[in-house]
Design a protein that fits this description.
heterodimer, A: mainly beta, four-stranded antiparallel sheet, 1 helix, 3% helix, B: mainly beta
Chain lengths: 117, 112
């Protein structure tokens, strides 16, 4: 069975450029999460969706970041304009239900490693 | 910012040794989960705990949900080389949320 699929796996871009990261969650999963991982700050939740609706975007760093989920099988995280401090690994994850206490598991993709020069 | 503190930050052990790591918080958490991350991959769930005092095993792994709801530990018995990776605790502050907060991680290195 296919897991969470992210693209691209690696991206190197120059400061000021727009970056779009893509995610396909596991079919049938209702919740989708975007996390950012850095050495300094660890794994940070940026935003999560339930049934394609953004539930909590309090972790989104600033207006340069935006995320969409136009349908149950696709989500994007966009950074415009990108800055060197955005360099990190961005993970998408999905889960079967609304409450962790009921479902118990996030399934993570392999991540998109972003380097902004 | 981070609300879960893990210790130790890193461990270097010999194959066959037992490992113990823990996670603490100044706030109450209603669920505790332990994940492992291999290099170049996303975290994978190892054990999930939903009740204070709960003790759960998964093969050589054992984890407990602290009675105070502010801590959890993970033990690995008889470590093997494939146990190498970063171990994260995670939890939710509320039952009505999917917002999973991750700990700072414990990096484990196992030498043959």
């Amino acid at each position: 069975d296919a897991g969470v699929i992210q693209s691209p796996r690696h991206e190197v871009t120059e400061m000021g450029q727009e970056v779009t990261l893509r995610c396909k969650p596991i079919s049938g999963h209702n919740s989708l999460f975007w996390y950012r991982q850095t050495m300094m700050r660890g794994l940070e939740l940026l935003i999560y969706f339930n049934n394609n609706v953004p539930i909590d975007d309090s972790g989104m760093p600033e207006d340069r970041f935006s995320a969409k989920m136009p349908n149950a099988s696709f989500s994007t995280l966009k950074i415009q304009p990108s800055e060197p401090r955005d360099s990190a690994v961005y993970f998408c994850a999905s889960s079967p239900g609304l409450r962790i206490s009921n479902t118990g598991e996030l399934f993570f993709g392999e991540g998109s490693r972003l380097t902004v020069l | 910012g981070q609300q879960l503190n893990q210790s130790p930050q890193s461990m270097f052990i010999q194959e066959g040794e037992d490992v113990s790591m823990n996670c603490t918080s100044s706030s109450i958490f209603n669920t505790w989960l332990w994940y492992k991350q291999d290099p170049g991959e996303g975290p994978v769930l190892l054990i999930a705990l939903y009740k204070a005092g709960e003790l759960t095993s998964n093969g050589r792994l054992t984890a407990q949900f602290g009675i105070t709801r502010k801590d959890s530990f993970l033990n690995i018995s008889a470590s093997i080389p494939s146990d190498v990776g970063i171990y994260f605790c995670a939890g939710t502050r509320s039952y009505n949320t999917d917002k999973l907060i991750f700990g700072t991680g414990t990096r484990l290195q196992v030498f043959p």
